[in-house]
Amino acid sequence: MVVYVLQPRGDKEALQLHSELRNIWVGLTSGLYVAPVHNLAVGEVCRIVRGPLQGVEAKFERMGREGRLILQVEMMGGGIAVEVPVNDVEAGA
């Protein structure tokens, strides 16, 4: 059904869609922890929207383990790195 919604244009897009959907299926059925990933670029500013740091702006550093993001939070002229769940972060603060 997803293929009908996305409507690939041409053979190349259809093959790419098939490959991407297969990869998603393999990930979902692997038994491993799977979570959607925000397309954050290194250094991109985001906002923590849940948890003890709710409302804090931070810069994305890298992906952490098991659906967590490593963020840099500037504090008192320096900075700290925090690891927060991906669902607690909103891109584009």
Radius of gyration: 17 Å
Helix/strand/pairing category: alpha+beta
The profile of the biggest β sheet is: 5 strands, antiparallel
Uncertain regions spanning at least 5 consecutive residues: none
Assign a percent range to the helix content. Answer: 25-40%
> Strand-and-helix sequence, N→C?
HHEEEEE
Global shape: elongated
Distance between the termini: 34 Å
> How are strands sequenced across the largest beta sheet?
4-3-2-1-5
- Domains, number: 2
Assembly state of the chains shown:
single chain
Count of individual helical segments: 2
Strand content: 25-35%
Q: Roughly what is the average pLDDT, rounded to an integer?
A: 82
Give me the count of strands: 5
Structure notes:
With 93 residues, the chain is an alpha+beta fold. The protein has two domains: 1-34; 45-91. 27% of the residues lie in helices and 32% in strands. The chain has two helices and five strands. The protein has a five-stranded antiparallel beta sheet with strand order 4-3-2-1-5, with no helix packed on it. The longest helix has 20 residues, at 10-29. It is elongated, with a radius of gyration of 17 Å.
Label this structure with key terms:
93 residues; 5-stranded antiparallel sheet; alpha+beta; 32% strand; 27% helix; 2 helices
